């Protein structure tokens, strides 16, 4: 799945290899029970994949092979059955997918939460600053428990986080994770209170920031900015020239986009949602 994402990566593509690394590794196997993933190949080249979670589909299709998108959508219908209201979302630039999705009878639906790609080049980054008593650094490979704990803390006010040390260990052993790009802010007691992980696609010299978080009691101190900037500087040192992050773009969850824009990320393409017609049987 990452090979195909990397091969077709560009400004108009939905996913970065880091999206797949994070999404696959951060969810423990027992919570993947309802997932179905299929890959389409032509000879030794992968040309498409589909990933069903519940009634939703994520799909990646080589733009040079647009006809395969119809096969992925047929598989989606067969796997979910005609009585299910199927959902899918794509980046607005993925016209080869949109054509096939509309041909399969899906209609554009407004009003759902969506994501907006935000982009930054690394030539003019600000300097990360943390208040007295805090330390900014990257994690070490053996700090799995602490790394999982800061993720749980940061996401605890959204919903109880299911992040475990085992899942974080899986993330930290997933290609192309590297601890030099996994940054944290540590308080004076040695507790991690903010984090930002960047995934580097060396072929495209492009980073993906995913995920970012700050524990609720430490917010609005500039730690989110500092930990992002620390990780972005490290990305540049490792050869990166640009980075992407994909926060929500709708008004229902606006704060992360404000954080990223405050350090220089600029909004670009957004995701759009399509709903399949449910048959009354
Ligand atoms: C998003 C998050 C990481 C921000 O962390 P933070 O340490 O509070 O961010 P900072 O203090 O560095 O804030 C930087 C800028 O972001 C914006 N911002 C942050 N929180 C804000 C808020 N509650 N309201 C409005 N703007 C806000 C401001 O522009 C702020 O700059 P300012 O304080 O000078 O006005 C934090 O809220 C969080 O962990 N949320 C839950 C997890 C999450 O949603 N992660 C992002 C997923 S894409």
TrEMBL record:
It comes from Kribbella ginsengisoli. Gene3D superfamilies: 3.40.630.30. Residues 134-280 form the N-acetyltransferase domain. This is GNAT family N-acetyltransferase. InterPro entries: Acyl_CoA_acyltransferase (IPR016181), GNAT_dom (IPR000182).
């Amino acid at each position: 799945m990452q090979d195909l994402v990397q091969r077709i990566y560009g400004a108009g593509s939905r996913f970065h290899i880091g999206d797949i690394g994070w999404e696959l590794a951060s969810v423990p196997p027992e919570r993947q029970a309802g997932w179905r993933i299929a890959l389409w190949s032509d000879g030794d080249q992968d040309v498409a994949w589909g990933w069903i979670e519940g009634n939703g589909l994520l799909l990646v299709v080589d733009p040079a092979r647009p006809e395969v998108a119809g096969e992925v959508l047929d598989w989606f219908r067969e796997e979910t059955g005609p009585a299910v209201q199927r959902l899918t979302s794509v980046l607005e630039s993925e016209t080869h997918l949109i054509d096939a999705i509309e041909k399969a009878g899906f209609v554009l639906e407004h009003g759902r939460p969506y994501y907006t790609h935000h982009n930054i080049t690394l030539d003019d980054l600000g300097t990360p600053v943390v208040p007295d008593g805090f330390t900014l650094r990257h994690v070490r490979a053996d700090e799995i428990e602490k790394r999982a704990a800061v993720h749980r803390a940061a996401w605890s006010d959204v919903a109880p986080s299911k992040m475990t040390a085992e899942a974080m260990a899986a993330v930290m052993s997933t290609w192309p994770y590297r601890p030099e790009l996994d940054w944290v802010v540590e308080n004076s007691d040695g507790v991690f209170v903010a984090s930002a992980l960047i995934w580097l696609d060396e072929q495209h010299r492009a980073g993906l920031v995913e995920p970012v978080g700050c524990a609720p009691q430490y917010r609005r101190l500039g730690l989110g900015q500092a930990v992002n900037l620390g990780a972005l500087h490290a990305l540049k040192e490792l050869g990166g020239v640009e980075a992407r992050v994909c926060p929500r773009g709708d008004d229902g969850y606006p704060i992360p986009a404000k954080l990223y824009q405050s350090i220089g990320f600029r909004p670009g393409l957004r995701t759009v949602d399509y709903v399949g017609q449910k048959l009354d049987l």
